[in-house]
Amino acid sequence: MWVLRRIGVALVLVWIVASVVFLAIRLVPGDPAEIMLSQGGVSPDAAVVAELRDQLGLDRSIWDQYRANFQGLLSGDLGVSLTDQASVSGQVFARLPRTLELIAVAALVSVLTGIPLGLLAALRRGGWFDRLAMGLAGLSLSVPVFVVGTLLVLVFAQWLALLPAGGFTPFRTDPTRHVAQVLMPAITIASSLAPVLFGMTRAAVIDVITRDHVRTARAKGVAPAGVVLRHVLRNALIPVVTVLALHLGTLLGGTVLVEYVFNYPGLSGLLVDAVNARDYPMVQGVVLVISVLFVALNLTMDLVYGVLDPRVRRA
């Protein structure tokens, strides 16, 4: 029952987001038909603009456009791009795996660095390692991702020539180059997520380690490693998982600068181009897919949270 409630809330959220996006992008100043016909600074004839508006269905009422749009969404059709008449679904799902891969690698790097370092810093609270790790985490948070990305390109691509400066090569074409091109953008994204996981893990472990059940486990003679892994880390991971879910959702829409710095052809670049061109179907398709992924990610993390803390399932 708890799972069904979560799924129901998730579906309602997706519908609300899709409706808000549909209405918001149509309030942006500018006529898509006129913009499409004004390429190169040429002023289009009013009759030609009206004819294109009729072809694209932009002369219909907002309600008719909304109804037709959602009928298409329910059948899995995201429409066609206003700029090149290509399938929105085809372009979105061609780029989506690239952005998801980037975020997945960044999340893996963040988890493998932030959580272990946060645990070690908490266990050595006040020591030199704790102070050094806290300083590095604060420094990493204070530097914007585009600066981190630019520095990585300068050092590893220009000075050391160890990694390519950017671009994208399909894995099946050249696996080694593919991994090399994903590595720096993923590390750049991780530079903003890993310090957050570090700080949350450190604070959560410090809080849990002083609780009664931990002292009881120690009094019973449980080995230090067993105390840390079974009694401390398991409970400390609950808030860490929540923070990770929220930040991963944010990263879905926040990779624009990183993809731009590394010339990475992901979903964010497609969204920026669509906004500039007033390409309503493309904007709505990209935002809808990102929203569905965000909601699905949070739903997954809710289920994981329920496994870690059974009290959540009774809420």
UniProtKB/TrEMBL annotation:
<dbReference type="Pfam" id="PF19300">
    <property type="entry name" value="BPD_transp_1_N"/>
</dbReference>
<keyword id="KW-1003">Cell membrane</keyword>
<feature type="transmembrane region" description="Helical">
    <location>
        <begin position="102"/>
        <end position="123"/>
    </location>
</feature>
<feature type="transmembrane region" description="Helical">
    <location>
        <begin position="182"/>
        <end position="205"/>
    </location>
</feature>
<keyword id="KW-0813">Transport</keyword>
<feature type="transmembrane region" description="Helical">
    <location>
        <begin position="236"/>
        <end position="262"/>
    </location>
</feature>
<feature type="transmembrane region" description="Helical">
    <location>
        <begin position="7"/>
        <end position="28"/>
    </location>
</feature>
<comment type="similarity">
    <text>Belongs to the binding-protein-dependent transport system permease family.</text>
</comment>
<keyword id="KW-0472">Membrane</keyword>
<dbReference type="InterPro" id="IPR035906">
    <property type="entry name" value="MetI-like_sf"/>
</dbReference>
<feature type="transmembrane region" description="Helical">
    <location>
        <begin position="282"/>
        <end position="308"/>
    </location>
</feature>
<dbReference type="Pfam" id="PF00528">
    <property type="entry name" value="BPD_transp_1"/>
</dbReference>
<feature type="domain" description="ABC transmembrane type-1">
    <location>
        <begin position="96"/>
        <end position="305"/>
    </location>
</feature>
<dbReference type="InterPro" id="IPR045621">
    <property type="entry name" value="BPD_transp_1_N"/>
</dbReference>
<dbReference type="InterPro" id="IPR000515">
    <property type="entry name" value="MetI-like"/>
</dbReference>
<keyword id="KW-0812">Transmembrane</keyword>
<feature type="transmembrane region" description="Helical">
    <location>
        <begin position="135"/>
        <end position="162"/>
    </location>
</feature>
<protein>
    <submittedName>
        <fullName>ABC transporter permease</fullName>
    </submittedName>
</protein>
<keyword id="KW-1133">Transmembrane helix</keyword>
